[in-house]
């Protein structure tokens, strides 16, 4: 059976692609390989591309997507992109339209451009939950409208990674669209894990963690003086999934809102490998570069296990489409025979 061809934009270090491909283990569970093939991957961040290219047989093209022509992107069945979550503005025209506070805010339109030019069967877009409420909730409907105008039947859902076996409460907006002529309605995977994976499953014993990941006594004293209740720096309950890890972990402090661990009277940040585990990357995934680069890439990534479930949902829809197309020629032949020989009874009663 021919593989589903995938083009991936804003791929980062490859969390999406691990989910697309499958064939990995996480916390003792095997995530089977999907019938997929990545024919194009792209990101502009050099260090993220280096991590990506250390882990996949195909390479991520490190370049500005705005400078890549659609002609240079191979034909594909599904376009995927976690476009950057920059702030949007609403231009007060009739009808209102999207405005952008930076060039990065326009990057989702590159995804729309490629959809119009390449006409894949489907697309999957992912973003932070704040996208829904951007500009008092006015921007998101216009973003969906752009995807619809590209010729796709579109729907979205807010999903929480902790419901799919990821040890992290990470809520993301997932947008799925199918080309209008296919008459497919988007659907989303249902949470499969009634018992969320606790943080303790993926962290090291504190004795095995280098001292450089611990905050200094001075930092702790400063926190206690200014913020005794830890309203900002969030000490995690290891019996529950972790709070969302982000690229800010590259410069986390006890006065930030990023999750940290309390070990006795001391506090520490997560190691890069722990962040990879919190994001559901398998142990076999290679982390290269500085800690700063690792934190940034991992914090921006999509959890592979979550995306595995999303890809499973979409690939099953496309498989149903392929099977229905295989039946169609036989039905056409039958109708041709009936039309040619009108004396043949339709039913033998």
Descriptors for this entry?
349 residues, 31% helix, seven-stranded mixed β-sheet, 14 strands, 2 domains, alpha/beta, Rossmann fold, globular, three-stranded mixed β-sheet
Residues in β-strands, percent:
15-25%
If classified by CATH, what would the architecture of the largest domain be?
Answer: 3-Layer(aba) Sandwich
Going across the major beta sheet, what is the strand order? 5-4-1-6-9-11-10
CATH H-tier superfamily of the largest domain: Vaccinia Virus protein VP39
Count of individual helical segments: 9
Fraction of residues in H or I helices: 25-40%
Instruction: Predict the CATH topology of the largest domain.
Output: Rossmann fold
According to DSSP, the number of beta strands is 14
- Identify the CATH class of the largest domain: Alpha Beta
| Spatial extent as radius of gyration | 23 Å
Structural class: alpha/beta
Mean pLDDT across all residues, rounded?
A: 86
Low-confidence stretches: 327-349
Distance between the termini: 40 Å
Apparent shape: globular
Largest sheet: 7 strands, mixed
Number of domains: 2
The sequence of SSEs as H and E is EHEEEHEEEEHEHHEEHEEEHHH
